[in-house]
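Recall the central idea of this unit: under ordinary conditions, the amino acid sequence of a chain determines the structure it adopts. In this exercise we apply that idea directly, starting from the sequence alone.
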Amino acid sequence: PAAAAPEAMRAALAAFTGGAPLRDGKVTLEIAALVENGNTVPVSVRVANPMNAADHVRRIALFTDRNPEPGVAVFHLGPRSGRAEVATRMRLATSQTVLAVAQMNDGSCWQAALEVVVTMPACAES
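Accordingly, the structure predicted from this sequence is:
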């Protein structure tokens, strides 16, 4: 199966975080634990953080450890975004871990991860 090399995943995370450590908390990742079709999987991310000039979320990113490319999406936010919440659809090549990372304006990074079981991987249909 398609899988990002561990080095590629580490490099993608380091590029996003700038080397800041990942902390647990603040981030809520919503994605089904069991997905029938990996071609279009709804996912949403919320960050419990104020959105004002002094304290806000700068970016939210999604990563996967078994897709060919570990970086799925990056969303840019600012204090005028109102709330730190994004939603999209993604493709999953196989069952894997989905990781959401939020970077705050102070440079700190927060994470949430979920295991997702995919019964029909993306690109499997002919």
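The beta strands are 22-24, 27-30, 34-37, 41-47, 57-64, 71-76, 85-90, 96-104, 109-120.
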